[in-house]
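For the sake of transparency, this paper describes our internal protein records without simplification. An entry from our holdings is shown next, in its original layout:
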Amino acid sequence: MPASRGTDAPALRVLVVHNRYQIRGGEDAVVEREAAALARAGCGVEAVFVSNDDIRGPVDRLRTALEAAHAPRGIARVLEAVRSFRPDIVHAHNTFPLISPAVHAAVRAAGPATVQTLHNFRVACAGAMLMRDGAPCETCLTGSPYAAVRHGCYRGSRAGSLAVARMIDRHRRAGTWTRSVDAFVALTEFARGRFIAAGLPADRIAVKPNGLADPGPSEARRDGILFAGRLSREKELETLAAAAARLDAPVAVVGDGPLRADLVGAPGLRLAGPLPAAEVQDRMARAAALVVPSLWYEGLPMVVVEAFAAGTPVIASRIGALADLIEDGVTGLLVTPGDPDDLARACHRILADPPAARRMGAAARAAYARSWTEEATTASLLAIYRRALASRSTAGLKSAS
């Protein structure tokens, strides 16, 4: 990714490191947006992106599993970029499974400061979501990560769960998270608390939400309820389908995922499939409300940020970070997780009272303007970088003495 250089040299040189997912999701989009925002802020930015699409067959899968704790080929790619680009900061996002957390120690040995954004809970949980059997689970947060093997928490596979648990255990024992990372970025205060419970150093975890360039307020006529996201179990599409069947108007569903076939023909749902980002944004700006019925803690769903930016209230499960992000009755409505009757009541309340929905939307737009603009979140990230560099310099002086 080319740097955005004016007549002056960039204030910082940042190497962004990210392992892309096979099914593109919000995290992939966030990483690209954040890198572009840093470039617009005057930083020199380059990126090392690897993709799980490169894991093509049984041999690749076996080798990837064996190398998950320390992925030498992925780390070599990052170090090559460090040597050629000479960054001040190496900012890692997802490193699983083709780069691995071991990249932090390798980068610090080469000189740059390291930063890790914690998009999910894989530092402690093989399944990454602190969820099992349709409910929150924190067994591995403070206990042994190998509990995940018994339950097959990684994709229902005990063998896969063993590979991920081994990676978690190795880096916990090696002190990767306490010794090799200069700064962490948590997306919410709720998530920060969970990471502290998992043993990450509290003084190095800053809260910085994902930002979004301002699309401008929407003056469109509002109509209907919208779901936009991955069609997977943790998003609780079953509860959404049951709630939608109780409503007078269908719920529009945008996205793709493993549950799509199961939802075809569900009364009350109108499946639109995956859509271009601009069309999703347009639908968001015309919806009476966005619904997020998740069963897991969530990190910081970008659909919530996008809805708030569009002045669209959010109906969400009262769980984890969602309970903090949505102010009940002010920027949206909170409902009992997994309760279709409660979800249907909230949707009906929004549809039956457009003036109240508009007031919630205006409050949501104001919340976005306070906390989630690109300018605000980029400024916060640059402050985190400066603290990471200061910490790196202090550590260097101590080791030299």
Q: What stands out?
A: The chain has two domains: 13-119+175-211+374-400, 225-371.
